[in-house]
Amino acid sequence: MKKIHRLGAALAVATAALTLSAPAAAQFAKTEDAIKYRQAAFALMGNHMGRLAAMAKGEKPFDAAAARSSAQLVATLAGLPWEAFPAGSGTGAAKVKGDPWANAADFKSLQEKAGAEIGKLAQSVDSLEGLRKQLGATGASCKACHDKYRGN
Ligand code: HEC
Predict the structure, then answer these.
(1) Ligand 1 centre and the CA of 139: distance in Å?
(2) Residues 9-64 pLDDT 10s
(3) If you measure from the C-alpha of residue 42 to the centroid of ligand 1, how many angstroms do you get, rounded to a whole number?
């Protein structure tokens, strides 16, 4: 029952994230505000993925409650960056390559694939073995997009 409940919660989070990301560009007065916003969301995602990675690698003791909290945060945060990619915001502090705007369908599909893996992550962290397996798949889904669209 607990598992089913958590699956429901994860779906609710995923649905909320989709709804939240729908209103798109108009939220940001300035391009640099959008860039800051998405980089902040990504930085927090990276922080919590790092915490999970430390447990997966045995650098930190496995703690299921902390792992669940980080995985749920990543799931929530992962809904945030996408509305903060208004057209023409590959400027200034942006570290973008490969033109995600000209390749919008591909960029979106990579978001959805990562979203699916991130959703599974929140379901997989009850055991160290589950965490290790799904963290790998999730990290690969982040990397798939970064290889094409994250600059440096
Ligand atoms: C669909 C594409 C996509 C996916 C999926 C994605 N990212 Fe990114 N990420 C980007 C892009 C593009 C940038 C560069 C944004 C910028 O600088 O404007 C970025 C930047 C970052 C940064 C640097 C933020 C900063 O401070 O400049 C981190 C950290 C990061 N991503 C972590 C992650 C993690 C962790 C995941 C998976 C859980 C992930 N990303 C999934 C596209 C993606």
Answers:
(1) 11
(2) 655 555 555 555 545 446 899 999 999 999 999 999 999 999 999 999 999 999 99
(3) 5
